[in-house]
């Protein structure tokens, strides 16, 4: 059966130049890049479904997941765009149309950058969520999230979003000029437009790398809140974020910095071999997508493990065992039994014997009861 399917596939591929005008002609490294995008597109699709489910069930942890979901969608779209770009440039019969080149390259700039901005925002909101929960659990002893933390996060995220959008717009403008009909532009004009794009792109990547220090600052604040609250939730979200998320996000930013240097004038030169450029592109695609996937997956796991972030929730605490008070038979009676040495029975009046009879005085100074026949 498998041989028949392979034969059918080969037959269709043999007729593809005649039917579609397309012949797949790519180097092994270019094919590897295409396979990388296909694998991660599938992984991100699964992660989108998991994040959506976690968003539904994660009461008390929904804000970070609500920001994380569009971030994963952007990276999923980036992988689909990478597939389209690789397939288009692998056509051995014809060069891709200019509109397709402009669209795919612009989206390769927009989607990953926007996804990284939202991922940073989701990670910081997860730290804020834990710090606020510890403050509630400790009745305000650990302190709330500072307003300056919110302001710093908002300003940094806004700056990243502006730079990412500007970089995407500049590369789109450059490609429109490069593939357009503006023949009055010189090579110097084209180089100037491209350099403007690279400068903004470097600025974005620099501030994105700095975001690792902001995450580290959030981890320090959360650690101090845990000490003040005296709540060592070792298997819960706070320590997972401090000891798991912080180093993972830091390594991700180191990877971003490494490939920023490699793709800069200080790294691979424009006249480098095609093998070197393709190898760098493959490594960049694998590492950046992997670490983005790992950071997002860790946040999703915290969303599924509701006991991780339900600090102080009685529904996730073992209820105390209170024995029934069946004194004097109960062995759980908290005081020594009356039969023990040094204790005596309390002398209580017999309610039957002590009840006044007819004709008795009803109390001190009370006259005898009068009865009439």
Question: Can you offer a commentary on this structure?
Answer:
- The protein is mainly α and 373 residues long.
- It has a single domain, classed as Rhodopsin 7-helix transmembrane proteins (Rhopdopsin 7-helix transmembrane proteins).
- The chain has helices at 2-19, 28-57, 62-89, 98-137, 147-179, 187-229, 237-262, 274-304, 306-309.
- α2 (28-57) runs antiparallel to α3 (62-89).
- 28% of the residues are buried.
- The model is unreliable at 4-19, 312-322, 330-337, 342-346 and 358-373 (pLDDT under 50).
Quote the beta fraction.
under 5%
**Which architecture does the CATH hierarchy give at level 2?**
Up-down Bundle
Number of domains: 1
Can you say what the CATH homologous superfamily is?
Rhodopsin 7-helix transmembrane proteins
**Helix/strand order:** HHHHHHHHH
Low-confidence stretches: 4-19, 312-322, 330-337, 342-346, 358-373
Q: What is the CATH first-level class name?
A: Mainly Alpha
* Major beta-sheet overview: none
Average pLDDT: 78
- N-end to C-end Cα span: 117 Å
Rough shape? elongated
* Count of helical stretches: 9
Could you name the CATH topology?
Rhopdopsin 7-helix transmembrane proteins
Give a count of the beta strands, DSSP E runs of length 2 or more: 0
Give the proportion of residues in helices: 55-70%
- Rounded radius of gyration (Å): 36 Å
Structural class: mainly alpha
């Amino acid at each position: 059966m498998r041989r028949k399917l392979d034969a059918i596939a080969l037959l269709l591929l043999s007729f593809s130049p005649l039917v579609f005008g397309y012949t797949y002609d790519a180097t092994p490294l270019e094919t590897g890049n295409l396979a990388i995008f296909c694998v991660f597109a599938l992984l991100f699709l699964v992660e989108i479904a998991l994040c959506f489910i976690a968003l539904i069930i994660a009461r008390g942890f929904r804000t970070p997941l609500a920001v994380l979901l569009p971030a994963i969608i952007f990276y999923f779209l980036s992988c689909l765009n990478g597939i389209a770009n690789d397939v288009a440039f692998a056509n051995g019969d014809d060069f891709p149309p200019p509109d397709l080149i402009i669209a795919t390259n612009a989206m390769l700039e927009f989607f990953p950058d926007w996804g990284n901005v939202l991922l940073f925002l989701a990670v910081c909101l997860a730290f804020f969520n834990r710090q606020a929960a510890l403050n509630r659990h400790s009745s305000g002893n650990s302190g709330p999230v500072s307003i300056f933390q919110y302001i710093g996060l908002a300003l940094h995220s806004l700056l990243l979003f502006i730079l990412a959008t500007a970089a995407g717009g500049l590369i789109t403008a450059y490609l429109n000029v490069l593939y357009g009909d503006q023949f009055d532009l010189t090579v110097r004009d084209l180089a100037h437009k491209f350099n403007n794009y690279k400068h903004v792109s470097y600025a974005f990547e620099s501030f994105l790398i700095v975001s690792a220090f902001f995450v580290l600052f959030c981890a320090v604040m959360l650690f101090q809140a845990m000490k003040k609250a005296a709540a060592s939730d070792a298997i819960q979200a706070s320590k997972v974020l401090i000891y798991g998320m912080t180093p993972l996000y830091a390594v991700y930013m180191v990877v971003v910095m490494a490939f920023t240097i490699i793709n800069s004038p200080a790294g691979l030169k424009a006249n480098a071999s095609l093998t070197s450029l393709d190898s760098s592109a493959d490594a960049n695609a694998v590492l950046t997508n992997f670490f983005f996937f790992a950071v997002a997956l860790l946040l999703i796991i915290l969303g599924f493990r509701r006991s991780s972030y339900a600090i102080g929730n009685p529904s996730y605490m073992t209820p105390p065992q209170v024995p029934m008070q069946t004194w004097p038979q109960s062995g759980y009676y908290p005081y020594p039994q009356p039969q023990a040495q040094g204790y005596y029975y309390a002398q209580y009046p017999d309610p039957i014997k002590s009840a006044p009879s007819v004709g008795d005085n009803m109390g001190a100074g009370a006259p005898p009861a009068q009865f009439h026949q």
